[in-house]
């Protein structure tokens, strides 16, 4: 399972960053910026092909101070969050149904798999035609792209609830609802959160795809306009904003994990000496 | 499994305070269970009839595949018998479903709950307020000698400690019957011996009716009042042996003549 394999890597990165984080991060960032600046200077690239970091920073600052960058960012962020919430909520509910009922799974899984075979980029124009260029069609695209990984992880998480713990709950005469609350939800949570982590970054992609297809606001729209005007520095500024957005959402889910899955991440007690 | 509370069991009126009643808490009548399968299916247990008296400690011995665990799962309400019945005596008020505490070979603790939270789980399920539940759990923690580990996560417990928490969880709800399915089977020999003594102490402190499945003849003799021996598949009752060794018992007892005699009879009955 992909998210499970990702887990140790990400958490190791988190631990590494915690320990010597600030130094390592700073050094690698500075090195990358320096390399970029050197490349632009040596190759004598024009700004509309590759602007230098200084030019990008200046353009970023200008867009930030005239308020346009924040406006577009806020618009995109709203789409991303609304889509993430709607998509993962629906996926969780349907995932619970699929995990519980094999009939439902057999009925729906062909459509679910087929829906994943269609690239979201191909469906996006259709959704914009049907639901207009406003925010709703973007939220829908985000929700669609988030839906599948969260659904799969919900089903996998619920199916992986150990049988012996189910027996235990039954022997204690737990009701359906009690079993859900005290066993199924906490047991499925680690895998579910892995799906949410993937969904969070995918949602950002969904919003940009939607805005490319048809929108008059948002960071995707901003990139499109800047490209038309050969304002490549602004394209870079928008891309960096998107990266920060995706990282922030990803980090938020990781924080959620560290909080909800304390039993996995809490430091072990010191071995007795 | 529906426990039929309306059927006559030997004593329906409360016993004099403090004295155990010499009567059945549990009656198992011609219990058979066949798992569906090819042709006639797998006959796990067949025509088992026995009673458990209040505060009695009974061990079930038998070769692998004699349906010992199936019996436990039927009594725990996890499996429905194919025929025959299980009746619990009406205890402490009519109409209340019987409470059964189960400990399996694995501790089966919820990894997302601390030691105390694992012990409060059955109480929470019964709707006991959390504060009261925590208080009862704290008493259990003391009884099993795990003070200081209240807020430890299960992954940080040793096998023996985890199994003690599982015992505490089964006992905290004050069960009418305590079912132990090879509870020490996954532990090393030394821990196992110590846990046997621990279990005796808990049993004496809490005055429970216990049915315990084990593979070990000496464990059965050291712990129980009676030993039921099951035959190989399908499990039928081969021997119902009363263990009249004096209590308290200790490891030294293994080397006495009466112990050897009982062990010999048990050994002979296990085919």
From TrEMBL, chain A:
The chain crosses the membrane at residues 21-43, 80-99, 111-132, 138-162, 183-213, 233-258. InterPro entries: MetI-like, MetI-like_sf. It is found in: Cell membrane. It comes from the Bacteria. The keyword Membrane applies. Keywords: Cell membrane, Membrane, Transmembrane, Transmembrane helix, Transport. GO terms for cellular component: plasma membrane. It is a multi-pass membrane protein. The keyword GTP-binding does not apply. One of its GO terms (biological process) is transmembrane transport. Residues 73-253 form the ABC transmembrane type-1 domain. PANTHER family: ABC TRANSPORTER PERMEASE PROTEIN HI_0355-RELATED, ALKANE SULFONATE ABC TRANSPORTER-RELATED, MEMBRANE SUBUNIT. Belongs to the binding-protein-dependent transport system permease family. This is ABC transporter permease. The lineage of its organism: Bacteria, Bacillati, Chloroflexota, Anaerolineae, Anaerolineales.
TrEMBL record, chain B:
SMART domains: AAA (SM00382). InterPro entries: AAA+_ATPase, ABC_transporter-like_ATP-bd, ABC_transporter-like_CS, ABC_transporter_ATP-bind, P-loop_NTPase. Residues 26-257 form the ABC transporter domain. Keywords: ATP-binding, Nucleotide-binding, Transport. GO terms for molecular function: ATP binding; ATP hydrolysis activity. The keyword Nucleotide-binding applies. SUPFAM superfamilies: P-loop containing nucleoside triphosphate hydrolases. PANTHER family: ALIPHATIC SULFONATES IMPORT ATP-BINDING PROTEIN SSUB, TAURINE IMPORT ATP-BINDING PROTEIN-RELATED. This is ABC-type nitrate/sulfonate/bicarbonate transport system, ATPase component. It comes from Levilinea saccharolytica.
């Amino acid at each position: 399972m992909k998210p499970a394999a990702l887990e140790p890597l990400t958490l190791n990165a988190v631990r590494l960053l915690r320990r010597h984080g600030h130094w390592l991060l700073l050094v690698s960032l500075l090195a990358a910026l320096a390399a970029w600046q050197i490349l632009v200077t040596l190759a004598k690239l024009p700004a509309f092909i590759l602007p230098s970091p200084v030019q990008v920073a200046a353009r970023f600052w200008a867009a930030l101070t005239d308020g346009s960058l924040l406006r577009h960012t806020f618009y995109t962020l709203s789409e991303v969050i609304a889509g993430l919430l709607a998509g993962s909520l629906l996926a969780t509910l349907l995932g619970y149904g699929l995990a519980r009922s094999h009939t439902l799974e057999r009925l729906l899984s062909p459509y679910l798999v087929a829906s994943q075979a269609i690239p979201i980029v191909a469906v996006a124009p259709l959704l914009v035609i049907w639901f207009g260029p406003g925010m709703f069609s973007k939220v829908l695209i985000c929700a669609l792209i988030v839906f599948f990984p969260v659904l799969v992880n919900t089903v996998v998480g619920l199916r992986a609830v150990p049988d012996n713990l189910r027996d235990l709950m039954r022997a204690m005469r737990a009701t359906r609802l009690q079993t859900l609350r005290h066993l199924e939800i906490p047991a499925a949570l680690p895998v579910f959160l892995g799906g949410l982590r993937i969904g969070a970054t995918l949602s950002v992609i969904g919003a940009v795809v939607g805005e490319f297809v048809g929108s008059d606001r948002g960071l995707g729209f901003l990139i499109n306009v800047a490209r038309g005007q050969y304002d490549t520095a602004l394209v870079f500024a928008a891309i960096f904003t998107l990266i920060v957005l995706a990282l922030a959402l990803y980090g938020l889910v990781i924080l959620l994990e560290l909080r909800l899955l304390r039993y996995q991440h809490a430091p072990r007690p010191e071995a007795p000496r | 499994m529906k426990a039929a509370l309306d059927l006559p069991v030997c004593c329906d009126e409360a016993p004099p305070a403090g004295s155990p009643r010499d009567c059945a808490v549990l009656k198992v009548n011609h219990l058979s269970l066949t798992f569906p399968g090819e042709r006639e299916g797998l006959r796990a247990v067949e025509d088992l009839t026995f009673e458990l008296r209040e505060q009695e400690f009974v061990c079930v011995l038998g070769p692998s595949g004699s349906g010992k665990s199936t019996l436990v799962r039927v009594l725990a309400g996890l499996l429905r018998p194919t025929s025959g019945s299980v009746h619990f005596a009406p205890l402490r008020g009519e109409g209340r479903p019987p409470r059964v505490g189960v400990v399996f070979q694995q501790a089966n603790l919820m990894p997302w709950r601390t030691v105390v939270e694992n012990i409060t789980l059955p109480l929470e399920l019964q709707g006991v307020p959390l504060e009261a539940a925590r208080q009862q759990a704290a008493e259990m923690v003391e009884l099993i000698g795990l003070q200081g580990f209240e807020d430890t996560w299960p992954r940080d417990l040793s096998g023996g400690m985890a199994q003690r928490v599982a015992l505490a969880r089964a006992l905290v709800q004050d069960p009418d019957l305590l079912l132990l399915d090879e509870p020490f089977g996954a532990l090393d020999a030394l821990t196992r011996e110590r846990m046997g003594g621990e279990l005796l102490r808990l049993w004496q402190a809490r005055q429970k009716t216990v049915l315990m499945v084990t593979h070990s003849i000496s464990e059965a003799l050291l712990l129980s009042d009676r030993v039921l021996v099951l035959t190989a598949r399908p499990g039928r009752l081969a021997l119902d042996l009363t263990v009249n060794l004096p209590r308290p018992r200790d490891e030294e007892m293994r080397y006495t003549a009466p112990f050897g005699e009982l062990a010999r009879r048990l050994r002979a009955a296990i085919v």
